[in-house]
Amino acid sequence: MKKLPEILCIGSVLWDVIGRAGVAMPLGADRPGRIARVPGGVALNIAMALRRFGLAPALLSSVGRDVEGEALIAACILRGLQTDMIYRSDDLPTDQYMAIEAANGLIAAIADAHSLEAAGDKILMPLHKLSKPYRGAVALDGNLTLDLLAFIATDQLLAQADLRIAPASPGKAQRLSPFLQSGRGTLYVNLEEAALLCQKEFHSSAEAAEALLARGAARAIVTDGGNPTTAATPAQVATLTPPPVSVTRVTGAGDTFMAAHIAAELRGLKTDDALDAALQAAALYVAGETTI
């Protein structure tokens, strides 16, 4: 590779199948709505948002050579994303995610990222071929296995990179524990994920961020829905309240927030301004006024 990518997005690249109803849905409800299949996955969502913010991200993931995979790669290229570093498997199918959303939020979701997990460290092969260590920004998601995340947290392969890490879901939050142990990277988590990582309940994002720092995090950014969000390092803590919005969707909101925050900091914005820019971008997204 002659030119290093501007930013790497490592993790899930898959198809999102999202059903949305405009009314509240209790357990077991059957409501009319819309069902859409769109490119998704944490790494891909972040990459698409970064592209919208003017950056040129490259994807590291696993995508099958099946019909779904070919269509997904074509969709990524159409969106201006670099796909030449993606591991293409002849045997593993393309992953997918399914969710149901309603007026009262996310009802249920199932993430099938088994092919990404099965591919393991094969997705990192392009990094071994780089002519020099990668020193740019890296958006990393928790759909990778715990062993692979632990490798990334401690190995020299990305030791000089600006690591930005997010769990794929609360159920995978504890996979980020190697980054607490190594004291590397910026953790992007919500209040529930912070509680799982610290094995303790929190009442605010500031409390959760301070606890993550105490457990070894180099930097923690904790969101809490419409409640205040906190960005914290041992030297500085900033807490801002998101703008009030009418929520029309939730899938991808955290990815948009993370991408907007990374883009803002790469533009040189300082802590408070970068956090505000990310909150504004996420608010527009959940209100349905922008796309990833």
Q: What features would you describe in this structure?
A:
This protein has helices at residues 42-52, 67-78, 114-119, 125-128, 146-154, 177-182, 191-198, 205-214, 253-266, 271-286; strands at 7-10, 14-20, 34-40, 57-60, 62-64, 87-89, 96-102, 105-112, 137-141, 162-166, 186-190, 219-224, 227-233, 236-240. With 292 residues, the protein is of the alpha/beta class. It has one domain (7-286): UDP-N-acetylmuramoyl-L-alanine:D-glutamate ligase. It has an eight-stranded mixed sheet with strand order 4-1-9-10-11-12-13-14, with helices on both faces. A four-stranded mixed sheet has the order 3-2-7-8. A two-stranded parallel sheet has the order 5-6. Strand 7 (96-102) and strand 8 form a beta hairpin. It is globular, with a radius of gyration of 18 Å. The two termini are 28 Å apart.
Low-confidence segments: none
CATH class: Alpha Beta
Strand content: 25-35%
Biggest sheet: strands side by side, in what order? Answer: 4-1-9-10-11-12-13-14
What would you report as the Rg, rounded to the nearest angstrom?
A: 18 Å
Percent helix, as a range, is 25-40%
Q: How many structural domains can be distinguished in the coordinates?
A: 1
**Could you tell me how far the N terminus lies from the C terminus, measured between alpha carbons in angstroms?**
28 Å
Shape: globular
The CATH topology name reads UDP-N-acetylmuramoyl-L-alanine:D-glutamate ligase
| Order of H and E elements | EEEHEEHEEEHHEHEHEHHEEEHH
